[in-house]
Amino acid sequence: MSDTKVLRESATFPADVLAEIHRAADQGIYDIRGFGTKRAVPSFDDLLFLGASMSRYPLEGYREKCATNVTLGTRFAKNPIELDIPITIAGMSFGALGANAKEALGRGATMAGTSTTTGDGGMTEEERQSSKTLIYQVLPSRYGLNPDDLRRADALEVVVGQGAKPGGGGMLLGQKITERVAEMRNLPVGIDQRSACRHPDWTGPDDLEIKIQELREITDWRIPIYIKVGATRVKYDVALAVKAGADVIVVDGMQGGTAATQDVFIEHVGIPSLPAVRLAVEALQELDMHRKVQLVISGGIRNGADAAKALALGADAVSIGSAAMVALGCNRDAFTEDYEKLGTLPGYCHHCHTGRCPVGVATQDPELEARLRPEQGANWLRNYLTTMVLEMQTLARACGKSHVLNLEPEDLVALTIEAAAMAKVPLVGTDWIPGND
Amino acid sequence: MKQFDLKVDTLRELNQYLHDSPDNEVHVINPEGRHCVAAGVNHDADVTIDGHVGYYCAGMNKHAHITVNGNAGPGVAENMMSGVVRVKGGASQYAGASGHGGTLIVEGDASSRCGISMKGIDIVVAGDVGHMSGFMAQEGHLVVCGDAGHHLGDSLYEAVIFVRGSVGELGADCVEKEMTEDHQAELARLLAAAGLDYPTDEFRRYGSARKLYHFDIDHADAY
């Protein structure tokens, strides 16, 4: 007779690893999924703010102003982006997301005073109309890219990579390639779409500098140009992006999400957002370009604390993708039977790639998409962004700052040696910053 | 006719004029390899450029007819939407990359990745094209009157490639296909538009085998 007390799971082969080996043996192909990394990595949770005390003077909560506005793209563009809050909505494609979700993101972002961003597949009319400030992505696939949309965008974002899969191209599986998606991308309906991982008309930073010149010429130097990179060799990439002429650099940490890519890519490529911020800021400071070229950090930003810590480390703004989808209802505890049909449950779902999103966010299915009403989604996003901003202001006031951008590394300590080394702030209770002489 | 001398006038002045002015004829002299010449033109202009141009000449062109009396650097007519771009000399890499429409004619040779990611543009090259031409090409036609380098049409979607000369190793999922009368008629139209007069039966047609349209373990070696 067996005794369950003596059952011992292998640390090397825990249940999820065994299940993946069994799946691979059955199917002979890597697992493709959505969402972001599920492993624990050093994060902003490993940092703490040092609130005001005898030597620091706090601001009165609810009474003394703590500003949150930010200007992005001040380097070359005639018309920089003016935002009320330093939290933007990251690029997510129409195709990966439904039109209702894109509209909800645009409306919610506009109500909150911030920007939203197109994605692979081009600009939809819904998102242009609903977004006061819309960033238009120029991606390797160039799906849907056209000069008319370039000219009606408020900024451009040249996507070199994204945190979930730096070095990899996009995927959109056939079940999401509806007639409208296919038409926008010039592809046959229903195929498993592969997006290129490299741009078709430039191959390095010297080329990119000229490419950016072209984009500026086409848009008459009016609008800012962002460069987005997945966080890997951050110091080099940021320096090269500055050299290439970026107005704004977006660094996307490995916790960033995706609608579909190989699980091995999501879990094993790129570095977390925590060290990425510090590396990016150092690169800008070494070039005397910190605050001249604005830095946006994304990848796993979930609340006002994460955002405030990224700003304290030197970012000018943060960007949210997965968290914005969650605000729209992703993984909400509803329609449980539809989660179960996907073999999952609310709280665990990463099935964006299937197109069967139970809450109508990451789908092209009309019945499922109807579950997300744009006005409802917009309100949810607005409320969520408002909450994040209130949290940021609370923390900033506690540190005596009248603007969230006045937060600084000196306001932070680290809970772990790893986080101290990555963020280059002292280990809590010590003066020790690992790696500093 | 308005003339711009790029020894004297700036590129910004030229492009701003092309964007703002309904002037139908613009003559550019002394481009001296400058990048982004006549990029983003958005009306039915007739632009003649005497000399060699650098990167992204006629980039994202819409409606205009642009002639380069010289060679063109990388990315000529990239992402073109409509109109006609004619290069009297040779073209460097990525000619016509991701173009959605219109016609690009290269009277000399085109380098590697000609027609990469094309999305509806028609490209006619009187000479040869380099390796990886037509990579991930989605829609439109690529006509090569000379030879094509290795990996032609790699990961091709629904674009159609015609080649008159030799072809190096074909790219993944690119196959030779039957040349029907309809295809010959389409090719004749493209050659005539380019002002070229080759017998269409001297060409072979290449297209997608469509084996990579869905992830399939049996085709894993092609990925």
Largest beta-sheet details of chain B: 11 strands, mixed
Average of the residue pLDDT scores of chain A:
95
Number of helices of chain A: 15
Taking all Cα atoms into account, the compactness measure Rg of chain B is 18 Å
**End-to-end distance of chain B:** 52 Å
**Mean residue pLDDT of chain B:** 96
Total domain count of chain A: 1
**Strand-residue fraction of chain A?**
5-15%
CATH fold type of chain A: TIM Barrel
SSE inventory with pairings:
The complex is a heterodimer of chains A (437) and B (223).
Chain A: H1 15-27, E1 32-35, E2 47-49, E3 70-72, E4 81-83, E5 87-89, H2 99-112, E6 116-117, H3 125-130, E7 134-138, H4 147-151, E8 155-159, E9 171-172, H5 179-185, E10 193-194, H6 205-218, E11 225-230, H7 234-244, E12 248-252, E13 258-262, H8 263-268, H9 273-286, E14 294-298, H10 304-312, E15 317-320, H11 322-328, H12 336-341, H13 366-369, H14 374-398, E16 412-414, H15 417-423
Parallel strand pairs in A: 5-15, 6-7, 7-8, 8-11, 11-12, 12-14, 14-15
Antiparallel strand pairs in A: 1-13, 2-16, 3-4, 9-10
Helix pairs in contact in A: 2-14, 6-7, 7-9, 9-15, 10-14
Chain B: E1 2-5, H1 11-20, E2 25-29, E3 46-50, E4 65-69, E5 84-87, E6 103-106, E7 119-125, E8 139-144, E9 160-163, E10 174-177, H2 181-194, E11 204-208
Compose a concise summary of this entry:
The complex is a heterodimer of chains A (437) and B (223). Chain A is α/β, with parallel strands linked by helices.
Description of the structure:
The complex is a heterodimer of chains A (437) and B (223). Chain A has a single domain (27-423), classed as Alpha-Beta Barrel (TIM Barrel). Chain A has 15 helices and 16 strands. Chain A has helices spanning 15-27, 99-112, 125-130, 147-151, 179-185, 205-218, 234-244, 263-268, 273-286, 304-312, 322-328, 336-341, 366-369, 374-398, 417-423; strands at 32-35, 47-49, 70-72, 81-83, 87-89, 116-117, 134-138, 155-159, 171-172, 193-194, 225-230, 248-252, 258-262, 294-298, 317-320, 412-414. Chain A has an 8-stranded parallel β-sheet. In chain A, helix 4 links the parallel strand 7 and strand 8. Chain B has one domain (2-213): Pectate Lyase C-like, CATH 2.160.20. Helix content of chain B is 11%, strand content 24%. In chain B, strands 1-2-3-4-5-6-7-8-9-11-10 form an 11-stranded mixed β-sheet, with helices on one face. Chain B is elongated. The model of chain B has no long low-confidence stretch (mean pLDDT 96). The A-B interface holds A 27-29, 32, 141-142, 145-148, 150-151, 173-174, 185-188, 191-192, 194, 196, 200-202, 207, 210-211, 213-214, 217-221 and B 11-12, 15-16, 19, 35-36, 39-40, 42, 54-56, 59-60, 62, 74-75, 78-79, 81, 93-94, 97-98, 100, 113, 116-117, 119-120, 135-136, 138-139, 155, 157-158, 212-215, 217, 220.
